[in-house]
Amino acid sequence: MIRTTFFIRPVALAMLFTSLTFQACKDDDTTTEQENITTVEVHLTGPGMDMKFYWRDLDGPGGTAPVIDEITLPAMTDNIMCHLHVYDESKTPTDNITEEIEAENVDHLFVLTPTGADVSIASDDTDDNGAPFNLETLWTTGSASTGTLNIKLHHEPTDKANTASPGGETDFDVTFPVKIQ
User: Fold this and answer.
1) If you average pLDDT over residues 147-158, what whole number do you get?
2) Does domain 35-180 have CATH number 2.60.40?
3) Do 13 and 31 meet the contact criterion of CB atoms below 8 Å apart?
4) What residues pair up with 45 in beta bridges, in sequence order?
């Protein structure tokens, strides 16, 4: 009986170690197919406005330059709601990628950076963990001015609180001209 006990313990330990090793080596299926993003829509609603502005590159990188709308907003306006939409218009019907991004909100971060134009942008949503997501933002315009708005979508950011350098991969990086009048 003593020999059996000593034999069972090493075998049990070996099986436990093997089980843990296989679990540790298990394929991590976190790779996702890179989406073909052809269109970014900036949908703005607010006092007396419901406007959509588009960045479109239907043939992808290289080839024809993207077609980009100028975002035009009234000066001195509060409570402008922005909702971003992301599409792949190379497919029929158009693939609304926004839904997938929303479903995976903890793995994504939209970063909106105005330069030159007198507009301030505040987050108006969070991901499922309470961290910034920025699919929806609240804009306030100041005096008449011109500039740009850069929008980036970060995938698996390492620091969602740091919008200057959140880490992760960049799914898209687009820039709109902006005019406050």
Assistant:
1) 97
2) yes
3) no
4) 50, 81
